[in-house]
Amino acid sequence: MFDSKDTAPAKIDFFNLDADADNVNISRRDFLSKTAVAGTVAIAPGVLLHSTSASASGNTSTKASGEEVSSKNRWGMLIDTAKCADGCTGCVDACNEENGLVGHDRPATDTQYIRKVTLKEKSTGHELSLPLMCQHCETAPCADVCPTGASFVRADGIALVDKHICIGCRYCMMACPYKARSFVHENVDSQKLTAPRGKGTVESCTMCVTRVDNGGIPACVEACTEDNHNAMIFGDLNNPESDISIALKARGGKQLRPDLRLNTGVRYQGL
Amino acid sequence: MTRFLRPLLVLIGFMLLSPSTFAETPFPTVHEPSDESLKCIQPEDEMRRNHMNYILHERDETMHEGVRNEPGSLAACIDCHVEPNANGEIAGIDSEEHFCNACHEYASVQIDCFQCHADRPQKFIIRNDSSAAIKQQLLQTLAAENNSASNNSSEGVNE
Amino acid sequence: MSKIEYTSVEGKSLPYFALLGGLAVVMLLAIASVFYMEHEGHYVTGMTNQIVWGMPHVFAIFLIVAASGALNVASIASVFRKKIYEPMARLSALLALALLTGGLVVLLLDLGRPDRLIIAMTYYNFKSIFAWNIILYTGFFGFVGAYLWTMMDHNVYKFKPYAGFFAFVWRLILTTGTGSIFGFLVARSAYDAALMAPMFIIMSFSFGLAIFLLVLMASYKWTNMELGDVVVNRLRNLLGVFVAAVLYFTAVYHVTNLYATQHHEVEKFLLLEGGVFTNIFWVGEILIGGIIPLILIYAPGVKNCRKTLGLICTMIIIGGFSKIYTILIAGQAYPLEIFPGYEVSSSFYDGVVNSYSPSLPEILLGLGGIAMTLFIVVFALKVLRFLPASLADSVVDPHAK
């Protein structure tokens, strides 16, 4: 019998089996000191022990486990398209692994939380690529149209689907301007502990809400950072000292479909 | 009214005579957690009757308020209650040996939690699409947890 | 005016049972399709992450829109006090309830989690027009049910004008809500128009009356009861007005879009380059659903021909399906304009026109909804007295020539 449990009530170490087994050889301390999440030290894959300076700078959440989220934080992401390499799918792969997304060779119905989009400006011929995921709008159309309130935006800005009350009507998928939502078209088993998902409900990028609540960063941002592309920054938009706010103030950041006035949490540079 | 009395008595008579009245469906064997020093969040009687209220309350708090890692979270329940048996096999939700399903199948109360939620602790789920490195790490972790060096690696067993 | 005598269909003949049996078979096939779709998951259908709502929704929306329009005849009688329509008010209300039932059944059985219907009835997000629609549909059953009751129960007959008024107002709100499901979607270029709600209202008038006329003519023909030309011609002229009005709204919608450079791409897609969608628009919606019926309705030679009128109604129904297919499917097929001014490509079908091929289970489910509607009507006509014993000219309007 296995008898290796702690004596305290089980505090789940969600990051016991992180997906980054393939990056085991890379020294995390060296990496992270050069990246936007300076001031943090990894004690296990995906778990970041943040020093007080990092927490003060709003790059990760410092809320206690039992504490509720509030609107004093607004989590967002900044993507620098100049640093996003065409053909690289690090963020997509990391997301698929983190959330247990399985492809069935049916691209029309397989779930994608994040995808790489290749753009070519018609008037100039300028080409670029960027990752596109749920934009976590402040006034999200998906939250407006959901009949049961399953689609909602949390107080700290993360748009989520409460799959307990989702009836699978797919109206939010009609309403989303960014085609961020996917419907689960088949039976699912062997779900990841931190990413419950099931047939007949709608799902989308959660900004890795379980990681964020535990003081981490989304898997896509982490993968991009560890591969040294540094195209993605995550942080608290409400905190002027966070890396993301500093970057936004320095070089600006555009929303997609700004005409819709949705005040998205994801911003892009280079568009 | 009285014209219903005779058929009613006959019906009751049949019911009393039917085998199920006197036979007893065996109460399911519920797997006790291996570590007996661990306590559930509430006494057994309370949990047996009202566990759904705790789970429902927790789910709204977790979903909408971001309150995680509480002792009463679904993941904590599963981590404690869903364990491998003596043969090193672990049951999935479809099996009668699964902690939740044992009673729910007996009581014939359908639950749909596990249509979305993992029905076992993460370390016991080996996904078919996991890369070789991850499978390797899983097996290593399990081997480390299991003090014996024999081939007690657990794989998800769905019945 | 003499008191109207209502009758029920005898319903003992072989053709009657054959009709009921045939409809039941279609419903069973629909149930089988639902089990298959629900068990396997929606990947077995033609609906995808790109075309989110498909054939079931085309059928469902058509039936729901027609339901509110089928009540028109009763409303004109009770609210607008046109006595000549009064005998047909019971059938009108019955048809409205039956159509809504059929439409809702299709809609609900296509949900990803139809087992969560009770959640849909108890958790409401009142900012969602969909949530309001759920309340409106339930209320429709209540109000029209009450209305029908006042028509059939002599004890509450005096409440008929009030019940009729509330049912009339309710159905206008309901159809506005149905149109607003699309009108409120800011994301898609083909939707997001205030015109959607009134256009759906006028569509309901047209489709509902076409179905009503078909059911009326069939009921009287197959029971050998008299149906005079006065009533039929009045309804026919009314139908012509509604068909013309639908064409007008369609024209305004597209012309307004064509005025705005912003919408030129989507209009080019809908009207010219959409392939099957363009064909369905011009041939199905405009030609078969609008122009040819209009010509036939007002052509002098065929004025009293019932067969032609049956053909006209059928064409209007085909046009109605085409219209909803165009609105629903073509609106989703056209890609979202996330990056105006850019050519877009991705692994998730960005920047490309999405294709849709309906699968058999979806079509069977939709047909099952129609079968359910007709089953309810055919069965109800036998059980209660919905039909006036005679709608001959002399009975209906003694002063008519």
Output the CATH topology of chain A.
Answer: Alpha-Beta Plaits
- Order of helical and strand elements of chain B: HHHHEHHHE
Strand order of the largest sheet of chain B: 1-2
Question: Biggest β-sheet of chain A, characterized?
Answer: 3 strands, mixed
What is the straight-line distance between the termini of chain B?
A: 51 Å
| Shape-level CATH architecture of chain A | 2-Layer Sandwich
Alpha-beta classification of chain A: alpha+beta
Question: What is the total domain count of chain A?
Answer: 1
Oligomer: heterotrimer
The main sheet of chain A orders its strands as 10-3-11
Percentage of residues in DSSP E strands of chain A: 15-25%
Gyration radius of chain A, rounded:
18 Å
Biggest pleated sheet of chain B? 2 strands, parallel
Radius of gyration of chain B, in Å, reads 21 Å
- Give the rounded overall mean pLDDT of chain A: 83
Outline type of chain A: globular
Short description:
The complex is a heterotrimer of chains A (271), B (159) and C (401). With 271 residues, chain A is α+β, with helices and mostly antiparallel strands. Chain A is built from 8 helices and 11 strands.
